[in-house]
Amino acid sequence: MNEINDSNIHTRYLDGLNLNPLLRATTSLATAMTEAHAVFMAIPSHNFRSVFEQAAPLIPRGAPIISMTKGLEATTQKRMTEVIKEYCPDHPVGVLTGPNLAREILEGKAAASVLALDDASADWLQPALNVGLFRVYRNDDVVGCELGGVLKNIIALAVGLGDGLGAGDNTRAALITRGLAEVTRLGTALGGRAETFAGLAGMGDMIATCTSPQSRNRHVGIRLAEGKTVQEITDAMNMVAEGVKSAPTVVSLANRHDIEVPICSEIHRILEGKADATRVYRGLIRVVAGTESEPG
User: Fold this and answer.
1) Would you name the residues annotated as active-site residues?
2) Based on the structure, what is the number of domains in the chain?
């Protein structure tokens, strides 16, 4: 916290980059919430509820609450916006999502995001978020946008596994494309709109997460290919790879809705230690290269 406020840097996560001097860090929720016009929650899914439960009574009346967390709550299988609504039912609630790698945004490189908020407060919030080459688009499909950010993480684990095993560009493209079909099937079954998954919150976010060296979930897949255990990989990381934590919940939801998610299911088996990564990946490629018709 001190280095953010005193030097405008954060060496643990964004070493070598300068933060906006107007940014102020605090460990006090009361200080952070005082006179807030909008609240953005970027807490890992496994800690989201415990933090938000403390923050909720402090949020000014009517302030929109925006989740930036791309995960699901394991114990309840709820999305973060659903958790927020439990405590703040009278507030506008939405998500900010898309292909948003933090380092590139801070470097001033062009990026696009999606604000999913079915409320009039989006009229002033969207332009307030447009800064430099960071452009924000609007969407009223909160469920679809939120699920796009969650589901693509598991596909990125599979792509990273393939990259670590030396798969080629064709294989990567096939995994991403079939992964998008898988994400769309489950996402629409859970209440999202199909077209949402073809946009920034779906395909856009998936491309970035599946191909960037900065992607935490892709990184986990690569390390799995090297024979590392999930515990060894996560212990060595500074940040959370949400796909690792979301995979069991996603597979459970798919089973409940009778939706086939072969990529997610196989990755879940690997993460649970129930299957060898290399052997499962070979089987997965046979599934991806199968005879299923396009589209879907």
Assistant:
1) 152
2) 2
